[in-house]
């Protein structure tokens, strides 16, 4: 089976109270791709997913599965599997009952149902759990069952709406990497909604960052992080230091606390860098200030350094040297790690 391409064309969705949840959405998801939709609460992620699923119909625009216009088809005729944040399993059915539910509805014979159920239990790491009651399962196990149930009818498209959000941090990370392997192994076209940037980076072949119902940026995780399209994207996918430019100098830009290396022809009003790109130096650096606070984080330390600007700079340092509060700190930066942003 070749994986199917999804396409949203000029989709808009407003609700009865006038809320415009999604507007002007043009989007192609390639066959076999995992697209992560990332954004703050209320930006339109779930609505986008529901438009793809057929749980909502766009006011304007079309949805295509391959070359087929499915805009008017309900969910049961779209061949999609869905996994939600809150499991949504049938509590009165056992694990196997939940997994084969969709197969029963489709009239698939018991022998075939049971075979597929065993395969899926194996796939999601719950072999021999078919007879368990849903109440006996942990949150992580329930989400595995929900995933197996969604995959049972062999859908063309898998849609996941914050499936890991209700799990604790450690389990979330483990399930995330299992899910990543599973999606890659299946080669199924999938859309994964999350408000967690780490999850989007880890799972998405590409990330769609949404802001107020629109696409803020659609690109690879690397590009989103290293070349954010605007300040919203940059701030959402990591921490940012902003430098207001006071003046141009012979070799750079005069900013609070020193001079940044800058060889570009344009003179920006503000330049930015990520905390891990500021390097703590012995004595000489581009910027000079003093330590406000230091937080030990295991593999690295987060330093807050006051260089006289409106906010202390965030510095992620891997050397883990302990500095005294108030101690002078010199910072260096490589010119290529500085970037500018559109508003
Ligand atoms: N059924 C609905 N009726 C009215 N407003 C809705 C409905 N569903 C979603 N919304 C609104 O649409 C916007 C987008 O919601 P949603 O797609 O659920 O965002 P997200 O999943 O990113 O949190 C929000 O302002 C939300 O309040
Ligand atoms: Mg949502």
Assess the beta-strand content as a share of residues: 25-35%
Q: Helix amount, in percent?
A: 10-25%
**What do we call the CATH homologous superfamily of the largest domain?**
P-loop containing nucleotide triphosphate hydrolases
The first-level CATH class name of the largest domain: Alpha Beta
Total beta strands: 20
Order of helices and strands: EEEHEEEHHHEHEHEEHHEEEEEEEEEE
Number of domains: 2
Query: How would a textbook summarize the main sheet?
Result: 6 strands, mixed
Distinct bound molecules: adenosine-5'-diphosphate, magnesium ion
Radius of gyration: 24 Å
What's the rounded overall pLDDT mean? 93
> Outline, from the CA principal axes?
elongated
Q: In terms of structural class, how would the helical and strand content be classed?
A: alpha+beta
Strand order of the largest sheet: 6-7-8-3-9-10
CATH T-level topology of the largest domain: Rossmann fold
Number of helices, where a helix is a run of at least 4 consecutive DSSP H or I residues: 8
Question: What does it look like?
Answer:
This protein is an alpha+beta fold and 343 residues long. It has two domains: 6-236, P-loop containing nucleotide triphosphate hydrolases (Rossmann fold, 3-Layer(aba) Sandwich), CATH 3.40.50.300; 241-337, Beta Barrel (OB fold (Dihydrolipoamide Acetyltransferase, E2P)), CATH 2.40.50.140. The protein has helices at 45-53, 95-105, 110-123, 139-151, 169-186, 197-203, 221-226, 231-236, and strands spanning 6-14, 20-29, 34-38, 60-65, 68-69, 80-83, 157-161, 189-194, 206-211, 214-219, 241-244, 247-248, 252-255, 258-261, 270-273, 278-281, 287-296, 301-306, 313-317, 328-333. Strands 6-7-8-3-9-10 form a six-stranded mixed beta sheet, sandwiched between helices. The protein has a five-stranded antiparallel beta sheet with strand order 16-20-17-18-19, with no helix packed on it. Strands 2-1-4-5 form a four-stranded antiparallel beta sheet, with helices on one face. A hairpin with a 6-residue loop joins strand 18 and strand 19. The protein is elongated, with a radius of gyration of 24 Å.
